[in-house]
């Protein structure tokens, strides 16, 4: 089986790519530039960590105009990164791009690093969303495309533990894109909640 792995340079997506590698899957990593504030840091971390893990360099889908049009705290520095974090359509956009790329590469599936549903903050992070997305994507691609969320039963504490066990280092998960993690965005707060 071959798979398009959505990668962001963060811990979750890096673990998804490593798990696919460990299963012996041929994979095509895909990084989406959707106009996110942290793009430069994310992409730099993504390239470096995938190289360290012996994984292919990610292809980059350059769609920064999405973030100009669909504003949120993740794309617009004038908005609040925590309170205004929901970016409508973002995960569907990711899956649509990954599915189209999968068709081009002859891959069977796409994977996304969503965690356990009980920590989902937005409607496009749920199991119901993934099931419906798979139906719609398969229909729009003209063939079956599986949508896989290998971490769907994981909480962040589980991801951190498994990533440490597998030696993953050098990821970047802050939504602001600064050299030092802000400690206040959703990505940073996930680590705090799990430590509590």
TrEMBL record:
It catalyses: 7-carboxy-7-carbaguanine + NH4(+) + 2 ATP = 7-cyano-7-carbaguanine + 2 AMP + 2 diphosphate + 2 H(+). Its EC number is 6.3.4.20. Pathway: Purine metabolism; 7-cyano-7-deazaguanine biosynthesis. Gene3D superfamilies: HUPs. It comes from the Bacteria. The keyword Zinc applies. Keywords: ATP-binding, Ligase, Metal-binding, Nucleotide-binding, Queuosine biosynthesis, Zinc. Transmembrane segments: none annotated. It holds the Pfam family QueC. Belongs to the QueC family. This is 7-cyano-7-deazaguanine synthase. It comes from Paragemmobacter amnigenus.
């Amino acid at each position: 089986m071959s798979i398009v792995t959505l990668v962001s340079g963060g811990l979750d997506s890096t673990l998804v790519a490593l798990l696919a590698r460990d299963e012996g899957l041929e994979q095509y990593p895909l990084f989406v530039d959707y106009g996110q504030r942290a793009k430069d840091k994310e992409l730099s971390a993504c390239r470096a960590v995938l190289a360290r893990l012996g994984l292919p360099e990610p292809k980059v889908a350059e769609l920064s105009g999405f973030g100009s049009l669909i504003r949120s705290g993740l794309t617009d520095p004038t908005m609040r990164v925590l309170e205004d974090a929901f970016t409508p359509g973002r995960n569907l956009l990711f899956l649509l791009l990954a599915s189209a790329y999968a068709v081009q590469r002859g891959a069977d599936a796409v994977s996304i690093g969503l965690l356990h549903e009980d920590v989902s903050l937005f409607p496009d992070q749920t199991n119901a969303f993934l099931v419906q997305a798979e139906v719609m994507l398969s229909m729009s691609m003209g063939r079956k495309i599986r949508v896989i969320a290998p971490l769907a039963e994981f909480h962040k504490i589980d991801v951190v533990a498994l990533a440490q066990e597998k030696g993953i280092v050098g990821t970047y998960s802050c939504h602001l894109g600064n050299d030092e993690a802000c400690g206040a965005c959703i990505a940073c707060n996930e680590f705090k909640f799990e430590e509590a």
